[in-house]
Design brief:
The chain has helices at about 5-20, 35-40, 40-55, 95-110, and strands spanning about 25-30, 60-65, 80, 90. The protein has about 120 residues and is an alpha+beta fold. A 4-stranded mixed β-sheet has the order 2-1-3-4.
């Protein structure tokens, strides 16, 4: 069993990641984490978004959270991005690498990565 001091150190270390998942910021990134999403690789996608938002110092603007079934299992892992005054963007068949691109181009740059969306905007 861990000592109280060790547990407090772990809590402090993980504090930023927990705040990212529970925040109420303007931009919300929601990762589908139902059984189908997890089986398709949603955990690394969620981690990539959480770590990327933290690394880029976007914690005051972006909330990363998880949800259950989004309803399009054949396209898992699925990520939805919500921004005030804009239409929801649904990204499909996500990977950690694609998450990094979405973070750089959409979240930071303001340009939707159309080739990853559902329905595909470039089709």
């Amino acid at each position: 069993m861990k000592s109280l001091a060790e547990l407090a150190a772990i809590r402090e270390k993980m504090k930023d990641k927990i705040v990212l998942r529970e925040g109420t910021n303007d931009i919300r990134i929601v990762v589908g984490m139902a059984t189908c999403g997890i089986a398709a690789g949603a955990r690394p996608v969620l981690s990539a978004f959480v770590e990327g938002v933290s690394r880029e110092g976007l914690g005051d603007q972006v909330t990363v959270s998880q949800t259950g079934c989004i309803g399009i299992c054949q396209y898992e892992p699925v990520v939805e991005v919500y921004q005030p005054g804009k239409e929801k963007v649904t990204y499909v068949k996500m990977t950690a690498e694609k998450a990094e691109k979405v973070l750089a181009e959409h979240i930071k740059g303001g340009k939707v990565v159309a080739e990853y969306t559902y329905p595909a905007k470039n089709a």
